[in-house]
Amino acid sequence: MYAITIPEAGGPEALVWAEVPDPVPGEGEVLVDVVASAVNRADLLQRQGFYNPPPGSSPYPGLECAGRVTDIGPGVSGWKIGDEVCALLAGGGYAEQVVVPAGQLLPVPDGVDLVTAAALPEVTSTVWSNVFMIAHLRPGETFLVHGGSSGIGTMAIQLAKAVGAKVAVTAGSKEKLDFCAELGADILINYREQDFVEEIKNATDGAGADVILDNMGAKYLDRNVQALATNGRLAIIGMQGGVKGELNIAALLNKRAAITATSLRGRPAQEKASIVAAVREHVWPLIATGHVRPIVDQTVPMSDAAAAHRVLEESNHIGKVLLVR
């Protein structure tokens, strides 16, 4: 088969479409013929040499895909050859075929075409696990998501609104904020022109946000704690703003607040399977009824993955960028 390889770490030009050995499903795994994959910022880090795949997983980038089951390994039940699926991956989505643990497969939701389904596994799993399974966002609470126009952000807005939360977002342009508003965001903050701590306080009569989903890390750590409400929960899922920050523990104690930091890729298969099962139970019905929808900015041929990486680096997109075969 062909896959996007990374012979040497570097810029987008480091991505090479090359012939590689065909994967073979093992115990508890299925083989998926990939129709589409999606680009995530973790893929950019892997290309740069900063985020290697977990031991034993595919060396090729790609944390999610959609396609058709073409082979089934021993010990797999509930799936058959020909099933249209999407999948959460530890790697390997930028390829013609990929092996997936059966517990990380999802059926394509009703009302979603096969290509578009590639936009769903990573964002739904990330948002549901962090915002609902860990931070326990509740109806009536205020939720702040940084990068509201991103793939994660657009999904987080919709899921938070679906459970009855008040949603605040940060984004860097009027166009992006307008799109967030169309998805249901209530509080729109241009981080280039406004202080999100001040805006959240003003919008909540000084209370702050009950849950914050943060992709920035160190750069926003202190301000996120300032923006939290009493008993607030900060979920950190990214490091775009650095890895080391200063934490005011007194402020955290005074608010009886909590900070969690998670990544999805390196979790054990059992944990991923539990998250995927929760997504199928809670998120898939919302997609089937149209209350939640995948947001796709554009599609790019998989063999030209470098162009898709440049789109993410320029950061003018809204929603997901897909790679299609």
The secondary-structure element order is: EEEHEEEEHEHEHEHEHEHEHHEHE
Percent strand equals 25-35%
Backbone CA Rg = 19 Å
Alpha plus pi helix count: 10
Largest sheet: 7 strands, mixed
> Fraction of residues in helices?
25-40%
Q: How would you state the average pLDDT, rounded?
A: 97
The outline comes out as globular
Uncertain segments of ≥5 residues (pLDDT<50)? none
Q: Report how far apart the termini are.
A: 12 Å
By secondary-structure content and strand pairing, the structural class works out as: alpha/beta
Using brief descriptors, characterize the structure shown.
single chain; 325 residues; 15 strands
Explained architecture:
With 325 residues, this protein is of the alpha/beta class. Helix content is 29%, strand content 26%. Strands 3, 4, 5, 6, 7, 14 and 15 form a 7-stranded mixed beta sheet that branches. It has a 6-stranded parallel beta sheet with strand order 10-9-8-11-12-13, sandwiched between helices. A two-stranded antiparallel sheet has the order 1-2. α6 links the parallel β11 and β12. α2 (121-134) crosses α3 (151-162), α2 (121-134) crosses α8 (269-282) and α5 packs parallel to α6 (221-227). The mean pLDDT is 97.
Put the structure in a nutshell.
This protein is α/β, with parallel strands linked by helices and 325 residues long. The chain has 10 helices and 15 strands. β12 (228-236), α7 and β13 form a beta-alpha-beta unit.
Secondary-structure topology with pairs:
Elements: E1 2-5, E2 16-19, E3 29-38, H1 41-47, E4 64-72, E5 84-88, E6 97-101, E7 105-107, H2 121-134, E8 142-146, H3 151-162, E9 166-171, H4 174-183, E10 187-190, H5 196-203, E11 209-214, H6 221-227, E12 228-236, H7 249-255, E13 258-261, H8 269-282, H9 284-288, E14 296-301, H10 305-314, E15 320-324
Parallel strand pairs: 8-9, 8-11, 9-10, 11-12, 12-13, 14-15
Antiparallel strand pairs: 1-2, 3-4, 3-6, 3-15, 4-5, 5-7
